[in-house]
Structures are given as C-alpha cells and as structure tokens.
Design a protein that fits this description.
Layout lengths: L42 E2 L1 E5 L5 E2 L5 E5 L8 H6 L1 E5 L4 E7 L3 E6 L8 E7 L10 E2 L2 E8 L3 E6 L4 E6 L2 E7 L12 E4 L2 E9 L16 E9 L6 E4 L18 E3 L1 H10 L5 E5 L19 H6 L6 E2 L1 E2 L1
Parallel strand pairs: 1-9, 3-10, 5-21, 11-19, 17-18
Antiparallel strand pairs: 2-4, 4-7, 5-8, 6-7, 6-20, 8-10, 11-12, 12-13, 14-19, 15-16, 16-17
Length: about 325
C-alpha cells in the first residue's frame, strides 16, 4: 500500500511504499552459499506488492511491485520475465518502470469485472543488476470487482458515479481553487479512511496559523487519490458544495457530509476517479496509482519486455 502525506494540495508523486503485504514469510538469509555463477552478496527483496492477497479491487488498479533496492536498466527485462501475471480470462497489458524501484503492470484498457488475477514474482536467483540476487518468490491473488467509476467535472461542479455502466447518482462537488487547482486525469483510489488529520503545513501550503490558507483539521469520509494529498471527502469549511457556493478547495474534491459518506461506501481501492476541467494538468502516473494518465504508447516506452497477454489461470 502506498503511504504519504495526509492533506489536500502538495506537489508530485512518490515511489515510497510500506507495509507487510508483500513480504514473504521467514527472513531471507544473505549468507546462503551462492551458486558458482553468482557472487555472494545481499539478497534482492520486494518491499511490497499491491493489491494485497485476497482483496477485491477496481478496474483501474495496477499491480504495483516495489523493490527495496534499485533495479538496473540492464536487468529489468529479466526481472519482468519473472513477474508472471495470470488471469481467469486473457488480458493484454505490460509492465512499466516508475523509476528504478517501482514496476507497475496495468492492462491496456480497464480490467474486465470478475477477472481473477495472480502475480507470481519468482525472484529466486534473479539479479537486480546491482549485485543483488533474489532468494525466494512471492505470490498474490486478487479479484476485479464491480466496475465503479466516478467522473468529476470541475467546471460543472458535479460527480457522476456509475456502477457496471449504469448511472447510480450525480453529486454536487467543489474542486480546487484557481490558486490550488485539483489534478486532472484518472486516479485509481489508493485507499480510504473514515477520518484523516489534514494540515496545510504537511503539503507546503502554509505553516503560518495566521494565514487564510492555514488549516489543521480532522475530516471524515476520506477517499485517497494521490500521494500529493488529493482526497474526495467532506470539508467543514465547505459544507454545501456545488456551483452556487463558489468555494474552492486546496486541491481536494469536496462533497456534502451525506454525499461523502455515501460515496465512501460505494468505492474501493482501484476504482477510477476521472477529473476534467481543471487547469492543473494530469497527475503524474506515479502520484499514487494514476497509471491510466499515460497513453498506451507512453506506457510501453517504460517497459523492458513490451506488451504481453496474460497466461491462463
């Protein structure tokens, strides 16, 4: 799971991830005897694999693998070869490197609902190109759930929520102000929390308590979209969002209290929230799980092994 600052606004993305969702049982030993063709040295390990095993996620959720140490460009094709994606129905996709420690696999288009997915990261004996070799494998299985999408119009002050192609509700929203515009583009839900402590200081907006842009609040029904601090949530400073209120946020999408609670109950990790009409531009692909902000051609430029079709599960 990605972790990061908890406030609206802020800058770029982060490759940092933490948690134990990908760590294999047992402690790998760096002192095991190496094969004759491989030098002795510390092991190559994975920090996390997301989604977690047994979860049900949305149609825009990538498989995101975080390595504890950098993987050299010369080793990435071989590493990708050992990151095997299997599915219950054929899906076309590819790996893409977000820097030298994060590799994401996403389908060319959204996952079909109901697809069962397995990622086998067989790292045993695999080199990271920097003197480290994998010592064991990792396996995660997960399921693609209902196709839930939220389409946000910044200029229209609306959010349309659909489930499996059918409109469920259209909600009134406010997005970022001219000074702090919301990211455009598609962002898959990172996670959600019933309450989040948000501060303007944590995202570099203002640490001055006398500033009109200072805030230090704990707010409810928070759906997390970017590492730089974008949420869909309720704000006490904007209790009745919509075109009539003319309020702007510090980059988040505001809903009324009842709508925020309802939306929180509808969405899950990996559901796409697509925002249009903001002048800020699209969120960088690694700013959370904004993988679909890259075109397919752009995605393939970051892949060492290219487009592939999943093997049968």
């Amino acid at each position: 799971m990605l972790v990061g600052v908890t406030a609206c606004g802020g800058g770029g993305g982060s490759d940092k991830a933490s948690g134990d969702d990908a760590k294999a049982s047992g402690t790998p030993s760096a002192s095991a005897s190496p094969s004759p063709t491989k030098p002795a040295g510390p092991p190559m390990l994975l920090d996390t694999i997301t989604p977690q095993t047994g979860t049900t996620v949305g149609v825009a959720m990538p498989i995101s693998v975080i390595f504890t140490n950098p993987v050299a460009a010369k080793a990435r094709a071989n590493v990708e070869k050992h990151l095997k994606v299997s599915t219950s129905q054929p899906v076309v996709g590819a790996w893409h490197w977000m820097g030298d420690r994060r590799a994401d696999w996403r389908p060319k288009t959204y996952w079909p609902s109901g697809t069962k997915v397995k990622i086998d990261a067989d790292m045993t004996g695999v080199s990271n190109g920097n003197g480290r070799y994998g010592v064991h494998g990792y396996t995660h299985t997960f399921t693609i759930g209902d196709d839930v999408r939220a389409d946000v119009s910044v200029t229209g002050h609306t959010m349309k929520v659909t489930r499996n192609g059918q409109t469920v509700r259209t909600l009134s929203i406010n997005a970022g102000s001219a000074q702090y515009p919301t990211w455009d583009g598609t962002m898959a839900v990172i996670d959600k929390q019933e309450k989040v402590h948000m501060t303007s200081c944590s995202v570099g907006i203002s640490c001055d308590k006398g500033s009109p842009n200072f805030y230090d609040l704990t707010l409810p029904w928070d759906v997390h979209l970017t590492q730089s601090g974008t949420y869909v949530h309720y704000s006490t400073g904007d209790p009745n969002p919509g075109s009539g209120s003319a309020r702007g946020s510090h980059g988040c999408v505001h809903l009324s209290l009842s709508d925020a609670k309802w939306f929180y109950g509808q969405v899950k990790q990996g559901d796409p929230v697509t925002i249009t009409g903001s002048p800020r531009g699209k969120a960088p692909a690694d700013n959370g799980y904004a993988d679909f902000n890259l075109s397919w051609d752009q995605w393939l430029t970051g892949s060492a092994s290219g487009q592939q079709t999943t093997t049968a599960l």
